[in-house]
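User: Run a structure prediction on this.
Assistant: Running it now.
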Amino acid sequence: MVVSIAFVEILLAITCFLFLRRLSFNDGLPWNWPIIGMLPAVFFNFHRLHKKCIDVLERSKGTFKGKGVWFTNMEVLLTSDPINVQYITSKSLSNYPKGSDSKEIFEIVGEGLFNTDHDEWRKQRKMIHAFLNHQGFHRVTAETFGVVNLETGLVPVLDHVSQQDIVVDLQDLFERLMFDVACILATGYDPCCLRIGFPQVPFLKAMEGACEVMLHRHIMPRSIWELQRWLGIGKEKIHTHAYKTIDLALTKYLSMKQEEMSRGTKLKDEDKEGFDMLKFFLTQGSEIYGKTLTDQIMKGNLVGLIFGVQDTTSIALTWLFWLISKNPSVETKIREEIQATFPSKEGEKLRYFVNREERQTRLQKMLQAHIANFQYQQNLRVAQLCYSKLTRSIPTKLGVS
């Protein structure tokens, strides 16, 4: 009995020694365990996952290959190297097709650009590129971000919660704001998510559910989520409902836009309020694409645009205001700059909603000042770097014969 206990203790000590020795030679990178892969590193760093990813990328010189639990057959390649990103997404995109598995995971995007490869991808990319570079897109984007959603959504909501002393979820507020903006850019219609009382909008809820399902399909083994889909349970049940809701919403917007086209109301490119992705597809998309656009292609790209605008910008805004709240001195400087740019008397509301030309002029002055300061700082850093290299190359001691 004593021998058995001693044997177990020795075996445990050797295991711990080998484990610690392996960690010391792993340079702080996650260890690929048998069976469970790198799951422990994710579990123990879940509260600081973004920081851990940054640390891993720094230690691995910008590119790292992660492995999940063995039965999931999941491998993830993380890279922050701009050269790798450009090579994969631009120069040699044909060598990295998304494949059928990716199309099933991102089923909600349908036949849009995000789910296509090869020639189909090139044709859709040409069409999307033409839309993003259209002068109407830039004009409507400025108007939508600048006034429309601020006057009708954000400012009234903030005034209301301030007067009623209501605590709000800032991330939810920004998600609603950017969802309204994304839908206006994509379809030309405002779903009115950011309104007093924070109304429940099925379209928004369905998009959020679709995001959860895509993440779930990435993490879970394919056999499990396929079984859930067949049984109609778990996250796959959410996906079924979300898919139907999104399809119904986009079908409604498509029908409304086609009805406007048949009446000939506000569909000329010169109309400031009439330009959006859906209108662009119906008026110019088929010509650029090379053949008639199907409803599925249009819907897929509309969903892709909404995802791209809403999620990225809302998260960035949330982090920005969180950082500002942690740095009162920065908040004070921002307030002073706004007051200097848009002066108002004491007790008077901020005069941001002036005419467009005046507002653009004032904002450009603010941006030009920051750009000039940024360029000065960059030039100063370059000069310091060059001086540092020069001084290191000059001998510190001179031999005298």
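Confidence is low (pLDDT under 50) at residues 267-272, 383-401.
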